[in-house]
Amino acid sequence: MTQLHSREPSDVADTDQSADERRDHKWGIGAFLLVEAVLLLSFAFVAAIFRPAEGQPLSVAAILVATMLPTVVATGVALLVTVLRGNGPKIDLRWSWRREDLRAGFKFGFIGLLCTTIGAVLWTKIVGEENANSAVGALVDDTHLPIYAAVIMFLYVWLVGPVCEEIIYRGLLWGALERLNWGRWIVFTLSTVVFAVSHLEPLRTSLLIVIGIPIGLARLFTGRLGASVIAHQVNNFLPALAVLLIALGAIPE
């Protein structure tokens, strides 16, 4: 007698969904370029609106808006693209929150945290302490934010920012490159490099590549965005904590 074997629906979705089916959306590289243009234009707009008077520091509102608004707006456009030109973010961006994603995300996140810590120490010795700050760190330099603003900054850098960046780079860009039928390692490499370069911090590009590799591997080996989001959040915890403590004046810049 033939024994029938059943599989969970989620397993069927992963194993039976062909590569062509996963790439049946109508958006591609053009959509990613649109999102990047929105990101850059948003930065330029915020910089023009909140430009301080000569010799004056940035206001608290300017720091928060400059840190968060451009990326959030660009992420909204990315999600809208998947709705209007595809099957929605869950299908097009391979979004999920499974236990396997959490396990893989934490594993690659802690690996990334170790690599990032070592890389940051070596990189700081090469470029010097004065050039070692990230763009976010530079914003809070010499500015003691009120507690509410420092906490908002901490939560954004730790939790919200990684979600936005993963949607753009390991979601939209990854899906656009997959649609070109390039190998998955090429997709991983290109998305990692673009992720690093897109931060527009030339001195930190090599360090950002180191940061991006474990995060990209989480996306590569699971095939889903949830794992890379978790990995990114784990990796960002210590930098976010440092920004919080600097903003509060608890540790020197």
What does this structure look like?
By secondary structure, the chain is mainly α. It has one domain (25-247). It is 73% helix and 0% strand. The protein contains 11 helices and no strands. The chain has helices at 9-16, 19-22, 29-49, 60-85, 89-92, 99-127, 135-140, 147-178, 184-197, 205-222, 225-247. It is globular. It starts with 8 loop residues before the first helix and ends in a 6-residue tail after the last helix. 36% of the residues are buried. Mean pLDDT is 85; it is low at 1-21.
What key attributes describe this structure?
disordered N terminus; single chain; globular; 11 helices; 253 residues; mainly alpha; transmembrane
List the topology elements.
Layout: H1 9-16, H2 19-22, H3 29-49, H4 60-85, H5 89-92, H6 99-127, H7 135-140, H8 147-178, H9 184-197, H10 205-222, H11 225-247
Helix pairs in contact: 3-4, 3-8, 4-8, 6-10, 6-11, 8-9, 8-11, 9-10, 10-11
Overall pLDDT confidence: 85
Number of extended strands: 0
Gap from first CA to last CA: 72 Å
Using only C-alpha atoms, the radius of gyration works out to 20 Å
Q: What kind of sheet is the major sheet? A: none
Count of separate structural domains: 1
GO molecular function: endopeptidase activity
Transmembrane segments: 27-50, 62-84, 104-123, 143-161, 182-200, 206-222, 234-251
Pfam family, one: Rce1-like
Domain CAAX prenyl protease 2/Lysostaphin resistance protein A-like: 150-238
